[in-house]
Amino acid sequence: MSRQMLLMLCSLALFCLSPIVCPVASAQQAGEILLAEEGKTTYVIVLPIEANAVVRNAAEELKSTLEKITGAEFPIVSENEIPGGAALLCVGDSQTARELFDGVDFDAFRYDEILILSRGKNILLTGHERRGALYAVVSFLEDTLGCRWWTSTESFIPQCPTLSIPAQNLRYAPQLIYRESFYRDAFEEKFAVRSKCNGNMARISPEWGGHHRFVHFVHSFYPLIPPEEYFKEHPEWFSEIDGVRKAGYPDWISPGAAQREFMESIPEEQRCSGGQLCLSNDEMRAEFTKNALERLRANPGANFISISQNDWRNFCTCEKCREVDEKNGSPAGSLIEFVNKVAADIEKEFPEVWVETLAYQYTRKPPTVVKPRHNVVVRLCTIECSFLQPLESGALNASLKSDIEGWSQIAHQLFVWDYITNFSHYLIPHPNMRVLAPNLRFFVKNKTIGLFEQGDSFTTIGDFVAARNWVVSHLLWNPNLDEKALWDEFFHGYYGAAGTILQEYLDVIHDRAESTDFNLRCFLQDTRGWLDPATILQATEIADAAENAVADDPVLLLRVRRALAAFRLNFLLRYYELALYCKINDLPISGPDDPAKAMRELLAFFEEQGTHVHREAYARYSWENFKSDALGRFPAKPATPPDLPMDWENTLWIDFQDAGMNVAGRDKGWGEKVDDPAASDGRAIRMPGWHFEWAAAQSFPAAIGEKIQNWHVYGAVRCDAKTDEGVGMTCGIYDWAAEKSIVHKTLPVSQIKGEKYVLIDFGTVPLSGTMYIWFAPPKRPDEVQNVYVDRFFLIEEESE
Questions:
Q1: Residue predicted with more confidence, 659 or 331
Q2: C-alpha dihedral, 561 to 619 to 221 to 184, nearest 10°
Q3: 3-class secondary structure per residue, 592-634
Q4: What is the rounded CA–CA span in Å between residue 430 and residue 535?
Q5: What is the structure's pLDDT at 22?
Q6: pLDDT in tens, 16-43
């Protein structure tokens, strides 16, 4: 089938699939079809004489599942071996099926279309030639017989020796021809088939219908024109930035040896932290196209090739590129002109291949003049989206909505790369569940034919990943399904008695998030911007109730523990903030008696369940470093009280140890946490004296200023120095919302030099949650070797 015919057929797709599961009857009722009675059946499964592997596997799937349900044997026979008197379950396109179901045009099925049809007692399960019969079987088993595949290893198969069903008449073609739910479990072959997902990462063999395959999934400019190979001879092929041709790679991608050697070999003025190509250079385009065609020839069967910008900025601003971009009102102008020309050349040899490119960051705004050609598919990226608000109606998403609608008006078809997790921390709550369905429908409404829903594919027990994958996969197949019914079904079917309680927990944290004006991006280090201590404590009680509801069922309890692991981790990561909130408000803190032990056990649980990654870019942010940081939040030993003449037992004071402080730039050597016998808890933050960055810092929790306005602030610091003169370190309190310094102190070496910690008085400060305290070395490496921070603490300042 040609690409143009495929697109035409998909555009006619009917959304008629019902989310309602027909009940499995225990006895035949009027007008129903009796598939089995008391563990026996008269049915055979009929295949075409020359059935392909996909149709044979569809028949095996039908046979094995029906036998599990009824206990009856459902033989598979070729259409030339049908026993007399048998009732027929016809799978695929056979002559028998064409004769029994005359009027069905077996040659006009749309891409991935299914047909489930009964006439009398005979049933037809067929569809599009590639995998339609297989999807028809899966839909029949799920929607008619009530089977559920929750995960790749967990399912529900009803037991019904006597099985009758209503008459069947369903014809459905999905509008999304490319469907990818990007979760780790989703890639398993059988589960991907049962979820009806067919994206690039699904490990589906041709025998099970295969999947869409990309050549260069994304960011292909440098892979196709590597600067280490081409730049020295052809600098004019690369971005002109500030009048200079430049190339290079950013540090955050951890460049390989060849890439680092290249960057070191070119003059410094020609290096940049990531560059692009000069898209107006015809000579470069010819080489680019040659290389792209070679990759396609080396990957037979691929039906997409990505011709897309690198994952950073620094686009070309030479005179020719700038002229095109200014004419189009966007850097997407030169991109689409370039991609159209490459796509025209690719089509000559590969007419069935889609040429994909990105509308991403600087190319997100659509061009005003040039339009993508018919074999180009533009993939819009939602990386700037606020995922607390629906795209179509949220005020924070107005610009992104406008750009998507703008591309929809000029493009033949669109893809979308949707970011549905928190890439900076997979293992904490991320309250975006309520926008998943409305956003997906908005994409489809705007000509989207392929959707890449990028979840946390590296984890097994992230933030309700099983539920998310199940619901997203079903919506990809049919965006018109009722998402509330889908969530309800998964939670009740998978979590049993805990399901309703877990939904109450999710309602609490989503309601709290939506009550704020927070911009829920897809890169967040923590939950402080939207989840307050009071809500965490409320949600903890609900989470405990969910576990208690299934405490006697090991299978369900494990499922609930896996679902709540992200919330439990978030609780422990914010433990001292919660303890502070409870202390200020005279509340008992729920949670473990020994938080350090609880953290060790929880991290071990993640590992037992196969999770060893906590965020994207895991090569730079390893699991071992994360574990060390998480455990390091808890002091190695109880801290001694500060050396001040105070009645500590009867004074409201808050101690912030080094364990809970953030150390920035550790990969750059700015600081680290070390053992220090002189510190109050035996540990401290050490920063070398060669820089002056505010490397040791901590934000004040919002609870600090909510009930008590003024706090007396102290810090405990010291330094190693070869001199007694000059600056030893600096420190202060900064209000990021007001963009001003509240306190700034320059500490002389003579005051803080030595092995004993010195208390620094910051004075009385009206603290708030928009402030943070910071400490920095003096950038005097010859005089000051190291500075140390033991703790800072607050003492309630009584109002006059």
A1: 331
A2: -20
A3: CCCHHHHHHHHHHHHHHCCCCCCCCCCCCCCHHHHHHHHHHCC
A4: 14
A5: 33
A6: 333 333 344 444 455 799 999 999 999 9
